[in-house]
User: Which sequence fits this backbone?
């Protein structure tokens, strides 16, 4: 798995590591430590109702009834298929998935496992 370190300030992708503990972004000259970087990665991990990390493409189960607009309800136990972890949460929802009979929706990570 290749990993690009993104500058937390300008989102630049040219960050370099000094080999010791400091990262530097040549685009905005922001510097951050390896510890900061590890904490940022940890914070970016989206976790399910059981605290497990969720990966793109996962197929999970809905843990509770979720009311949508109108009379539509996603029943507890429904399959949340083809999950995609959003780069930026949409209205607080961290995930996008497909529910049979409903279609493509946004869903909170805490409602799947
Ligand atoms: Zn930067």
Assistant:
């Amino acid at each position: 798995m290749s990993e690009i370190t993104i500058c937390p300030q300008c989102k630049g992708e040219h960050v370099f590591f000094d080999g010791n503990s400091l990262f530097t972004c040549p685009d905005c000259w922001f510097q951050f430590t390896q510890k900061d970087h590890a904490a940022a990665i940890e914070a970016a991990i989206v976790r399910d109702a059981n605290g497990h990390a969720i990966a793109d493409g996962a197929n999970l189960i809905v843990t509770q009834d979720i009311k949508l607009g109108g009379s539509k309800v996603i029943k507890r136990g429904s399959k949340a298929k083809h999950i995609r972890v959003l780069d930026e949460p949409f209205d607080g929802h961290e995930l996008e998935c497909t529910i049979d009979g409903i279609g493509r929706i946004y869903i909170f990570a805490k409602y799947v496992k």
Residues 60-111 form one domain.
